[in-house]
Amino acid sequence: MARKKISLIGGGQIGGVLAQLIAQKQLGDVVLFDIVEDMPQGKTLDIGEAARVVGFDVRVKGTNSYKDIAGSDLIIITAGLPRKPGMSRDDLLTTNAKIMKSVAEGVKENAPNAIVIIISNPLDAMVTLFKKITGFPANRVLGQAGVLDSSRFATFIAWELDVSAKDVNAMVLGGHGDTMVPLVRYANVNGIPAMEMLERKYKDKTKAEEVMKAMVERTKMAGGEVVKLLKTGSAFYSPAASAVAMAQSILLDEKRLLPACAYLSGEFGVNGYYVGVPAVLGANGVERVVELSLNEEEQTALNKSINAVKKLVEDMDRLGF
């Protein structure tokens, strides 16, 4: 059986880690595209030369030509400028919209049947723009944000409770920005509510609530925390690993329920916008969006996040994209 073909648009930090992880998992042959001459060729040569050591047989190729992405089953887009200290995701809008327009045209012309996962920021706007330019069906265009945000939230809970992160389930909804909505009520450690475990640890409900509130805020600002520490770039390993989890679910038809930036057609009371929601990912991309019951506080927070996404899209329209 022929191997799947996975093309990565953007050969920066995330693109390089994506190529490495996909090769190690042997999900398919990899093409790494970037406009910088020789750079993707150098990265993929380096990764490919580890094949014997790591134990993979897939091919890894670097290119500066969109023609080499032809026939891709899956495309992951990271192209765009990373955030710098003091820069919000929204500050990136104009610059990265120009880049995304060019990328979308290249993908539409050369790989019209691919499923596309977008990581580029500001995420919700970039996914919207890509779909608008390509006209691809909504199920074949999605964004990676919720898997990463949820992993961050789960990891912080695991560290606080001194339990394995593998046993923590947490879900973050909404736009990929400061208004994202970590769902405290649904966070659990193998079914035991995280808040219940926090209350047992501190024997004080108020203290437990304060600790959880701090973790929620850290989750919302987690990307900025990494940017501040790195000083010259933004997170790259965790976003890449999160996108690979989505890619694996699609390529292997695992039908995992993962938070993804998906197109809504009435779900959660939203029509015609891309928002982070729980979605089943399989061979057809976004196979369905799963609605869950929200209380008044959660729904209010989600509505605020949705409004932030709508404003971002309006700003993009105003700028002529």
What would your notes on this structure say?
It is a single chain. 49% of the residues are buried. The strands form four sheets. Strands 3-2-1-4-5-6 form a six-stranded parallel sheet. A three-stranded antiparallel sheet has the order 7-10-11. It has a three-stranded antiparallel sheet with strand order 12-13-14. The chain starts with a strand and ends with a helix. The mean pLDDT is 95. The protein has two domains: 5-145, NAD(P)-binding Rossmann-like Domain (Rossmann fold, 3-Layer(aba) Sandwich); 146-321, L-2-Hydroxyisocaproate Dehydrogenase, Chain A, domain 2 (Alpha-Beta Complex). The chain has 321 residues and is an alpha/beta fold. It is built from eleven helices and 14 strands. It is globular, with a radius of gyration of 19 Å.
| Relative strand content | 15-25%
Order of helices and strands: EHEHHEEHEHEHEEEEEHHHHEEEH
Secondary structure category: alpha/beta
Distance between the termini: 41 Å
Mean pLDDT: 95
Unreliable stretches (pLDDT < 50, length at least 5) are none
- The structural domain count equals 2
CATH class of the largest domain: Alpha Beta
CATH superfamily of the largest domain: Lactate dehydrogenase/glycoside hydrolase, family 4, C-terminal
Percent helix among the residues?
40-55%
CATH architecture of the largest domain: Alpha-Beta Complex
What is the tally of helical segments? 11
CATH topology title of the largest domain: L-2-Hydroxyisocaproate Dehydrogenase, Chain A, domain 2
Strand order of the largest sheet: 3-2-1-4-5-6
Biggest sheet statistics: 6 strands, parallel
